[in-house]
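As promised in the previous annual report, we have extended the structural survey to additional targets. Below is the entry for Precorrin-8X methylmutase.
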Amino acid sequence: MFHETPRTATRRQGAGAGRRAGEYSGAVHEYLTDGAEIYRRSFATIRAEADLSRLLGDAETVAVRMIHAAGQTDLAADIDISPGAVAAGRAALRRGAPILCDVNMVAHGVTRRRLPADNEVRCDLGDPRTVDLAARLHTTRTAAAVDLWGEALGGAVVAIANAPTALFHLLDLLAAGGPRPAVIVGAPVGFIGAAESKEALRADAATLGLEYVTVRGRRGGSAICAAAVNALAQEDEL
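The corresponding C-alpha cell record, generated without further manual editing, is:
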C-alpha cells in the first residue's frame, strides 16, 4: 500500500497548483527538452566517441545514422559500406526505384517524407503465396518472399534486416543471373546465420557486381537497416 509522504504530497500539490490547460509545471527531473538541441548533441556525441576514420564522405553520414539508431558508438568498427553504395542508392531512389524489405518492421521504419520520388516501399512477407513457396524451396517464408520480388529487383534498393535466410537466398538468385539491385542494405540480426550471411554478401560483392551496406557480426536489425535506407534517401548535414 502506498503511503504519501510530505515530500511526495508537496510534489503532487505543486504539480497541480495553478496549472492552466495545456501547461505542465510538475517536473521533478532536470532534462533537456529542446528537440533540435537533443538532435545536435546526439550526433556530436557520436562523432566524438566513434572512430569514423574508415568511413569517408557520404559513407560517414550513413554510418552515423546507423550508429544513432543502435545507440552504440562501437558499431562503427563493424559497419562496412562498399565504395559506390551511397551514390548508387541515392541515384536509384531519385530515379524512383522501389525499396524491397524483408520484414514490415523495416518498411515501417522508412520515413516516407524523406523519399525523393514517392518510392514504393514493399514487403511481401504477408503474401499468402509465401507459405507454399517456402515449403517447395525448403526455406523460411521470409526467404521465399524474396522470390516474389521478381523483376522489381532490377535497380532496386534492398533492405534485409531480420532474416539471414533472405539474404542468402537473394545472393543465390543473383548468382543464378537474377536482376541486380542498385544496392543491398544487408544487416540481418541474430545468432544463427546472421554473421555468415553478411560475410557472404561481402565475399560475393566483387564477383556479382554488388554495392552494399552491412554490419559485420551478429548486430543489425530493423532500426539500423531503416536508418541506413533513410540516410540514402535524403542527404543531410549531421
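The domain at 35-233 is CATH 3.40.50.10230 (Rossmann fold). Confidence is low (pLDDT under 50) at residues 4-19. These points will be discussed at the next consortium meeting with the crystallography subgroup.
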